[in-house]
Write a structure and sequence with these properties.
Layout (H helix, E strand, L loop, with lengths): L1 E8 L3 H12 L5 E7 L6 E5 L2 E5 L2 E10 L1 H15 L9 E6 L12 H7 L1
Antiparallel strand pairs: 1-5, 1-6, 2-5, 3-4
Length: 117
């Protein structure tokens, strides 16, 4: 099994999830609200004549746990759909190998459930 994590801008969360489902049929995802910054180091806002610097930008962390053969298409779907057209700040996507994924309710290994489905 492979864990695919992606940090994306909040406005792209639904678009990314829909793209992954359309490209691979995978529907399981965990979404966590996050804040952070990359190379852009935040943004500067002007409000009522005063300048404010926002060091951390609102993002979302999406986590997918998929079979190895589906991981690359999931990454491709995320990268293609998360792109906003801005110069920077669209986030990152990475994969990690995971082992021993078990359903809490049934105690069955995810691999057993996926094969039996």
């Amino acid at each position: 099994m492979v864990r695919v994590d992606a940090v994306v801008i909040r406005e792209r969360v639904e678009t990314v999830i829909d793209a992954v489902e359309e490209a691979t049929g995978h529907v399981g995802v965990t979404v966590v609200e996050a804040v952070g910054h990359g190379r852009q180091r935040g943004v500067t806002h002007e409000y009522r004549g005063r300048i404010f610097e926002s060091r951390f930008l609102p993002k979302a962390l999406l986590t997918f746990v998929v079979d190895e053969d589906v991981a690359e298409p999931v990454v491709e779907a995320i990268v293609d759909s998360a792109r906003s057209g801005n110069e920077s700040g669209d986030g990152l996507t990475w994969t990690t190998t995971v082992a021993n994924v078990t359903h809490n309710r049934t105690g069955r290994k995810l691999e057993e459930v996926e094969i039996g489905a």
